[in-house]
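Standup notes, structure subgroup. Blocker cleared on the manganese (II) ion input:
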Amino acid sequence: MTLLRSGSATDVGRVRQVNQDCVLETGSLFAVADGMGGHAGGEVASRTAIDALARAFQPPAEGLPPAGLLIEAVETANQAVWEQAQADSDLWGMGTTLTTLALVEEEGREELAVANVGDSRAYLLSGGDFTQLTADHSLVEEMVRSGELSAAQAAHHPKRHIITRVIGVEPTVDVDAWLLRPVTGDRILLCSDGLVDEVSDEDIASVLAEVEDPGQAARDLVTLAREHGGRDNITVIVVDVVAGAEGGGAGTTSAAVGPAGPPTSADPGGGSIGPPPSQAANPAAASGGTGVALATATRTPVTSRVQVPSASPTQPRPLRPPQAPPRSSRPVTLRVVGFLVLLAAVIAAVVGAVAWYATGSYYVGLAGRRVAIYQGRPGGFLWFQPHVVDRTSLTTGEVLPSRRPDLRAGMQEPSLAAARRYVANLRQEAASLPQFHPSRTHHKASTTTTSGRS
Ligand code: MN
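Run returned:
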């Protein structure tokens, strides 16, 4: 039986006019969403995502949901934000991060599942070690992973707010997810970038290590972020594992879902998120610091598409590990540009030469029974087919039989004028030979030439 206790705090910060962050804190499902988008887009996106997540993460009649359901719920949240953005032109392009933690059941064991899209983070404080569970989907993080930036450079990089994966800007989204064995005394932090941009990991860790009450720790972290500038909305959820799942926790108690902190909206002007249907039966209690007992009635193994490795159960295991970042777009070097220009020039030259060769000459041939001047090569060349430029009045019957094989094969001439001279010559030849009568051409031809034509 795993017992969780949580507290949260959210604040508009000292610069922004509107808090576009949204927080969900129930007994077994926690989430931070950091919305973005003009007009009301950011607020709508984060709230829509949180609502949809809570609705989709429905526990089964008995026991806890599988981790896969948390991933599906994040995908559902993405779809909900996407559809709303499509339906309202004022909201077009809105998006949000979504980082969520849930108590789940995998292979009969209680586990903590973390799922993430964007750059809101989950951290784990365990036995004095403070580690980041999630990998930011941000341009800067990808540059760190590819070695272009150091972590220190990334922390203050001007482009650190450009995120590469967002809820709601495309109809589908890739979700990263991890499984974590609940260990008594462990503390998990979910937060928006408004905290980590202002407060170092070391300072965050020391607050988490010193302040016992999770609600107070969350409020202290928000205060610290404000003191360091508060340039963005700040949202913090602290979840304590009061009792872990050690000892196997063989199925005993009936589902005794205790009081849960109510989901709270980041919007100070109201519009608070109502308890999601999945948690509606839970009596709500004062936010933060309320012990929540979560137990499952049965221990039937849950069939799931999620594989849970048994090794080192206390270490976070990637449930759906971060995708390899797409190859970062490096500046195209001059050498590459030079090569491409040269390649284009070579291609152009080859195409030009072919076109010149294929179309730059003429021949005299036959078009049906008429002598014609063609542009191109007899029979064509590559994709260039010859075409008639002048269908003369001269018919094959008026041409000397000895010329006909040339005409059938195509008599090449270097220019149109040369081709016309050749045709004129054909006419003169026929006219200058008194014994040649065009009307009898065919008989004469078959007997006096070796053209082979009958
Ligand atoms: Mn933010």
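Discussed briefly. The first strand starts at residue 2 and ends at 11.
Next: hand off to the docking folks.
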